[in-house]
Automatic annotation (TrEMBL):
SUPFAM superfamilies: Alkaline phosphatase-like. Gene3D superfamilies: Alkaline Phosphatase, subunit A (3.40.720.10). Keywords: Membrane, Transmembrane, Transmembrane helix. This is Sulfatase. The keyword Transmembrane applies. The chain crosses the membrane at residues 32-51, 58-79, 110-135, 147-170. It comes from Lentzea indica.
């Protein structure tokens, strides 16, 4: 008897927790659980009033549904922690593959296999536990039908009579969550049509004299991984930008900076990069796949068709990358092509400084025509520890020098379960390293014909930014030739490599048109 009562109480607590628990970890407070779930009251009444022969099958079906709902809620919490949004039941399944790849690359194959096995076991366990819990509650309530009906009625009346404005007594969080997911499912099912309509418009395709105002310039677009607006408030990063601005100014460079709103946050760098280069808003994998299967005019293609040599330097690519054909590069340098013989630092295949040096050796160190390059750097990719040290450019060699760094032997640390202050410090250190790589590259290899654009791809995870952070990332254009920046005056960007708090903000998908229009003749 005692065992049955204990099982009933535990089953009730489990169901209560699942129905009331918020989908945002930041809202897990004691007050959030001091409520009565209306869905629970309705569920009890339905099961109690059903004929005996239908009660058990209905309880099992309802329990399975509750278990699946719990799994989706866990996914919501995880996506909110990293990507600042709930899980999309239609569009987000493809993102699970990059998540597994991240664990595989960062922590090893055993860790990735273990993570998959643990996830499958967790899902099965939650669904089984939910089904058994609802079945136990159904059996208990069905055996005491009059008592159960009266109890539900009393609780319902109490919820209504005790309700005070601003002090919630009951909760409909589960129903609200289901409605929100249903709306996202509907939007996801129609997103392909919406994207096709957006992609069908391209006023710059076939525009005569494209990029003629940049003829003879080497133009480099560099993506600094996880470099978000929140980084600018960190003392180490702010100091690095102030120092870098002074160094570049002393060498005759000028810079303009602003913000772009990224289509993603916490991850999904490839979607942000595709948005920037294509001028289309790519915020899910379905859009990305449709984009790379299209004939869209990208920035690399625009430069190539305007007589530049267009190259992609992609150290994060370690296997076949068929999507690379879409960008129409003359040459793609993946991780294996960079000639790096040093150790990995966390997720990063090569340190950012070495990536830039490899690009310089392969493309700009010899006699060449104008070159355009897109370079997504990876040193500031989570988990942000360990991070390499900056090296004298003359000593980089094949990267073997990095083996002498103590951090090169340290295994990467998970950002979860660590002190948030330590995670933020590691993040700031990695961003400072990446910015130093960019600044010192311009110092060493820049000239009158270099136009260097560097920007963030997305904000880091919420454990770094805190709740409510925007999706804005800094963008900076650096040049020594005054004629280049004079053409950007209409942009009204801030002077220097650090944008101020009131600097202009535009969508990342707007930059392609803004850039091409600025450095091309007026459209007819």
């Amino acid at each position: 008897m005692l065992l049955r009562r204990t099982a009933t109480v535990l089953a009730g607590l489990f169901v209560l927790f699942v129905l009331i628990a918020p989908s945002d970890l930041e809202k897990f407070t004691p007050e959030a659980f001091l409520r009565v779930p209306l869905e629970g009251l309705v569920g009890v009444m339905v099961l109690v009033l059903l004929p005996d022969r239908f009660r058990k099958p209905a309880a099992i079906a309802g329990g399975i549904a509750l278990g699946l709902f719990t799994v989706v809620k866990i996914m919501d919490i995880g996506f909110d922690m990293v990507l600042y949004r709930p899980f999309d039941l239609v569009l987000d399944w493809p993102l699970l593959v990059p998540a597994i790849d991240f664990v595989d690359v960062t922590f090893g194959r055993f860790a990735s296999v273990l993570a998959v096995v643990a996830a499958v076991a967790l899902v099965a366990g939650i669904v089984l536990l939910a089904a058994l819990s609802v079945l136990r509650l159904s059996s208990s309530a069905g055996g005491r039908r009059p008592v159960a009906v009266r109890a539900v009625a009393v609780v319902a009346v109490a919820c209504v009579s005790l309700a005070v404005p601003g002090v919630p007594v009951y909760s409909d969080a589960a129903a609200t969550s289901l409605v929100d997911h249903a709306r996202r499912v509907q939007a996801g099912l129609h997103d392909q049509e919406v994207f096709a309509a957006e992609a069908s418009v391209d006023a710059l395709r076939g525009h005569p004299g494209l990029l003629s105002s940049l003829q003879g310039k080497d133009v480099v677009f560099t993506f600094v991984e996880s470099y978000g607006k929140s980084a600018l408030d960190m003392p180490d990063v702010a100091a690095k930008l102030a120092d870098g601005n002074a160094r570049l100014k002393a060498r005759g460079y000028a810079a303009k900076s602003a913000y772009l709103t990224s289509p993603t946050a916490g991850g999904g760098s490839w979607m942000a990069q595709a948005t920037f280069l294509s001028g289309l808003w790519i915020d899910n994998q379905q859009r990305y796949r449709n984009l790379v299967a299209s004939d869209r005019l990208t920035l690399p293609r625009a430069f190539r068709e305007s007589s530049w040599r267009s190259v992609g330097v992609v150290p994060g690519i370690t296997q076949a990358w068929p999507e690379g054909d879409f960008f129409h590069y003359n040459e793609i340098y993946d991780a294996a092509d960079l000639g790096y013989a040093g150790p990995r630092f966390g997720y990063a295949t090569t340190p950012d400084q070495f990536t830039l040096e490899s690009f310089q050796r392969a493309e700009r160190s010899k006699e060449h025509g104008p070159v355009m390059a897109a370079i997504p750097m990876v040193s500031s990719h989570a988990p942000w520890s360990p991070t390499p040290d900056s090296v004298d450019w003359d000593k980089l060699g094949d990267g073997s020098i990095y083996r002498t760094m103590p951090a090169s032997n340290d295994p990467p640390e998970s950002i979860f379960g660590r002190d948030p202050a330590a995670v933020r410090a590691d993040y700031a250190h990695s961003i400072s390293y990446s910015l130093e790589s960019v600044i010192s590259y311009v110092e060493r290899y820049g000239d009158e014909n270099l136009v260097f654009v560097f920007l963030g791809d997305h904000q880091p995870a919420q454990m770094v930014t805190g709740e409510g952070a925007s999706r804005d990332v800094p963008i900076t254009i650096v040049a020594k030739d005054p004629a280049v920046l004079s053409r950007t005056e209409a942009w009204k960007w801030d002077d220097g490599i650090k944008p101020g708090g009131s600097a202009p903000v535009s969508r990342m998908s707007d930059f392609r048109d803004q850039f091409l229009s600025t450095f091309s003749p007026p459209r007819p």
